[in-house]
Amino acid sequence: MATRHCAEVDWSSRFKRGAVIRSKSGGELGVILAVVRNEGATTWWELHVDTSEGVGICYPEEAVLAPDDASRQEALRLGLRGLDSSSRAP
Fold first, then answer.
1. What is the pLDDT of residues 3-28, one digit of tens each?
2. Contact of 17 with 33, CB cutoff 8 Å
3. CA-CA distance, 35 to 45, in Å (whole number)?
4. Domain coordinates of the chain in residue numbers?
5. What's the sign of the alpha-carbon dihedral 21, 33, 43, 28?
6. Distance between CA atoms of residues 5 and 2, nearest Å
7. Which of 36, 41, 71, 77 has the CB geometry, 3.0–4.6 Å to 66, for a possible disulfide?
8. What is the DSSP code (8-state) at residue 48?
9. Other C-beta atoms within 10 Å of 20: how many?
10. pLDDT value of position 6
């Protein structure tokens, strides 16, 4: 829980809009729609993500980038919005 409030990590440099990600826990696939820094009494980051179940919020420390072609093809097959056309696997 403490890592959600670590303002010193700049998650916007690691996660970009249009990138394909998977959750670390269950492997669910999503496409990043926005990387949001929330400030208040504490500061935390959120990834707003389109998934097969709709738009949701994922915390950056609970996600990994999935730049492989298989993940990208799955995102296309699922019709996930926001996929970056330049985020193809090398």
1. 454 556 889 999 999 999 999 999 99
2. yes
3. 7
4. 2-78
5. negative
6. 6
7. 71
8. E
9. 26
10. 54
Closest CA to 78 of 28, 5, 9, 4: 28
Total-model pTM = 0.84
Residues of the chain with pLDDT under 50: 1-3, 5, 87, 89-90
Give the HSE-up count for residue 26: Cα atoms under 13 Å, Cβ half-sphere.
5
Helix (H, G, I), strand (E, B) or coil at 29: strand
Q: In whole angstroms, give the CA distance from residue 59 to residue 43.
A: 12
Is residue 29 a contact partner of residue 78, using CB atoms and an 8 Å limit?
yes
> Judging by beta carbons within 10 Å of its beta carbon (0-12, 13-18, 19+), is residue 83 exposed, middle or buried?
middle
Does the domain at residues 2-78 carry the CATH identifier 2.30.30?
yes
Q: Are 77 and 67 in contact (CB under 8 A)?
A: no
Q: Is-contact 74 27, C-beta < 8 A?
A: no
3 state SS of 73: helix
